[in-house]
Amino acid sequence: MRFFPTLPAMRRSTFAPIVGLSLSIAALQPAGAAEGVSVFSDPSKIAAIGGSITEIVYALGEEKHLVARDSTSNYPKAALALPDVGYMRALSPEGVLSVNPTGILALHGSGPRAAVDVLKKASIPFIEVPEHYSHGGILEKVRIVGKALGVDAKAEVLAKELDAKLTAAEKQTASIKERKRILFVLSMQGGKILAAGSETAADGMVKLAGGVNAVEGFSGYKQMSDEAIITARPDVILMMSNAGPPVSDDELFGNPSIASTPAGTARKLIRIDGGYLLGFGPRTADAIHDLAVSLYGAQVTD
Fold first, then answer.
1. Over the stretch 7-16, which tens digit does the pLDDT of each residue have?
2. Cβ proximity of 35 and 127 under 8 Å
3. What does the alpha-carbon distance between residue 298 and residue 300 come to, in Å, rounded to a whole number?
4. Residue 293, domain extent
């Protein structure tokens, strides 16, 4: 299959708020590895960077520690009352430090690199939380956030609760034999399909919900050629409902390559809130269930 090359940096910046939810992450390192800390000595004023990090803090009942959030942290609604220090992949050290945090808790992949390097060299403890798009990755996040805030026992309770919910959600599609082929479309700039490959949040969610990623041969997000889309033969198109320049159903299915696929013939499109679908946090088990039901309907077992 032929794929278009990765988007140039300037063009990618147009979609920064979208891609921040779901770009693949490489070279993961342990929380606080560069700084040698895993527990905040003073957790009274924490700046949370990354939507799932903020959700976990609230799920632990430790939101009293938060003094700020990033712009991807829009759930729960109560978090919106916190000062916004900017988009997690376009941070400015001045913006983060302006809230006078006693610690910074950031999802791995926050950036740009230069800004993160400045924050790591500041006198404020900086703990980095790994991101793995998997069942186990969610539990790891919970335990690391709990440890950072000094509430290990509460984190273990939450991790066990989420473990049970995730296991149950994954079992709901275990008996389904004919798996749907899913094409996750991030954007359609200029009529070109930007789709999710392996090592992405979208790929992880499709698999957890009992589907198959319709594309293969690349990781991250890339523009696909018309030939590659047709060859992928997706049964369903999956998109975020609240990101991007909006793409109408008619625009999507009017694309000749999409129209030539089983998904295009059936006009099968699922739209789900991006933070809910791709957050890999406390709500992911529910998102798995909802996506599975959208894909398989009554075949999904309780």
1. 333 333 334 4
2. yes
3. 5
4. 174-299
Distance CA 155, CA 162 (A): 10
* Sole residue written with tokens 């798996």: 179
H helices of 72-200, in order, are 93-97, 113-121, 135-149, 152-171
* CATH code of residue 166: 3.40.50.1980
Distance CA 205, CA 65 (A): 30
Q: Which residues pair with 46 in a beta bridge?
A: 66, 103
Residue 89 lies in a domain: yes
- pTM, whole model, 2 decimals? 0.86
* In a domain? residue 5: no
- Condensed to tens digits (0 to 9), the pLDDT of residues 273-287 reads 999 999 999 999 999
Of 77, 138, 108, which is closest to residue 280 (Cα–Cα)? 138
Omega of the bond prior to 76 within 30 degrees of 0, cis? yes
Other Cβ atoms closer than 10 A to 196: 30
- In this structure, what token pair is assigned to residue 168? 């149950």
Q: Is 220 left (phi over 0), alpha (psi -120 to 50) or beta?
A: left
- Do 181 and 212 form a contact (C-beta atoms < 8 A)? yes
198-216: b or e for each residue (b if 16 or more CB lie within 10 Å)? bbbbbbbbbbbbbbebbbe
Tokens of 53: 């990090």
Residue 25 is encoded by which pair of tokens? 């992450």
Tell me how many degrees the CA angle 149-151-156 measures, rounded to the nearest 5. Answer: 125
